[in-house]
Structures are given as structure tokens and as C-alpha cells.
Amino acid sequence: MAGTLSGSGGRPHPGRRGHPAGRGGVHRAGGRAAPAGGADGRVVDGDADRICGYFWEFDRTVRFGLADHQYGWDEQRRWRAAQPALPVGRWLVDPLVTTFGPDLAVVTTRFRYAGTGRQTPTWVRLSVGRRIVTAHVSEPTDPPTGSGTPT
Q: Which residue has the higher pLDDT, 131 or 91?
């Protein structure tokens, strides 16, 4: 999987032949901060059908949100349909894509809008295409520690 989410509808895509992303590794996904796009852009515009389309339609798909959690695609779909769009101005900060061969990628990023948060979707290549099989979204309760910039 390549180290970028852009140009593929927000989905990770296979690395080019000979590119280390096709064999696994850690890859920076763009610059230091970027406006939300792809799956994250659908969250901002509140498009529940498109958001849920990025997730594996299965009863074991899990999403942990800021103050919510859903077990299974159907539960997530019901929850998502009841949510308003996010406020304009959501930015992704330092997205990293860690791949494990061409079939699995874990994306970690921070986001900014009305505060800061973190999100980690896990993408798997399935027979229907690449889908998020689990996702975790959180906001730190204390200021984060560490370098602040991935290596």
C-alpha cells in the first residue's frame, strides 16, 4: 500500500512495483497538515452513506468514537445517519501509513478543529476492495507529550 491516501477516494492503494510500500513499512502521507479529504472529508460533509462505504460491511466491524462506540456495520450506519456534519475547518496533521504487505495498512493521524484529536483506522484489502475494519478516534485529556512529529 502506498504512503498516501489522496487520489484514491481516501483509500490506501497498492505501492508501485519495486516501491517499498508494496512490501510493508512506514510512509509519510503528505505534508505536515492538510485539509480533510477522502473518508475524512465525508465525515466533514456528513455524507453517512459514503462514510459507511469505507467500512467493511460486517457484524464485527468496530468503531470507537469520542463519546460513542459501534459494533457492527449496521449499528455504525444507524449512528452515523443521526450525526450532523462536522464543523468546517478540520485538518489532518502528520498522517502516517504503516503497511504490512499489500493487504493491510494502519493509518495514524492527528486532527485539528475546535480542539485536537487522534484517529487510527485499520484498512484491509478484501474481495470487495479496501475497507476499514476497525477505527479508533480520541481526544487527549492532557496535552500530548513526545516530539510531536513522527520520524
A: 131
